[in-house]
Amino acid sequence: MKTVLILGGGIMGLSAAWGFCRAGWSVRVIDQDPIPNPRGASVDHHRLIRHAYGTDAGYMRMVDDAYLAWDLLWADLGQVLHVPTGVLVLSADGGARYAEGRKTLLDDGRPVRDLTPAETLALCPALAPEHLFAAYALAPGGVLLADRIVAALAAHLAARGVVFERARVTEVDAARATLRRSDGSTRTADRLIVAAGPWAPRLLSGIAARVTASRQVLAYLEPPPGLWDTSPMLLDLPSFDEADKGGFYAVPPVAGTPLKVGDHRFSLAGDAEDDRAATPAEIEEVLAFVRPRLRDFGAYRVLGGQACYYDVEPRERFVVEPLGPDTWVMSGFSGHGFKFGALLGLALAGGDPDLPAWAAGQAPPSPALRRNWA
Known about the structure:
alpha+beta, 29% helix, FAD/NAD(P)-binding domain, single chain
């Protein structure tokens, strides 16, 4: 039986483990922390899946395949950890970022529904009416219950015989598909997958030149009762098409989770070993984007915040590439990679030769990939 060694127990590492396990490989996952790793970029209440992708038609279309992959995972897990919410995209000025993203969806035949201010408020009564200028809705889209997915997937893999090992890795030998651990011992396999998230630039010099660890702060709120009960996810696009001028996203409080908000900027700063607790100043910086856009914000209770670390590629293109004859890296997922975790895990295990191109949003997955899922 062929063996695969996977460094990293976040959504990418676990999805790769799932793909290889389904393909009949013997799988070992190594992580420096317990799984789910509370410091991992994947471990939070939720992540979003939606077709609204600005002008990036490649990733927009890839969402269709992502949904198919999640459906296969739900069948394996015996539970669905996704809550449909729909999507509401807003703009305070209807500028280029909003208009071009809307056009990309329409050009691809996506069911965009333009909204009047009254229709927007009916869909999301939490919004401040004085700031409504342009809005559209998409019915597809929802919340992936991220921490529950990671925990359920890890449990499923353990039951399938996947070996989990807690160890700190200090060196990656891509040419030999070998890891060196902090105690000096090594692990090797027929295939090595490095899915170390924001720690990858520490271990891979080639990735360090292309991917940056980025501290991102999320704030959690308790809204007034009933105000968000049927609201979709919100994507509030920056005014004047400049990220530093505003713009936030909001994840509604589904399945017992809090309302979560964050802004669209990348800090491109910090260290993956930093504390994940968000400071009051960091939380306030996020809330400054949100406060003007929500009505009666004083009635909300701020529950706190936390930081996570993205691994950011400058164009937000995923880096899923070979590093050696038997070694692959999965990196550069920013904040939008989670939705593609199940898809990328299947594709990596399936040996799709075009994977580097379509993972970077430059080509569609091959039809053979879908056939291999059955």
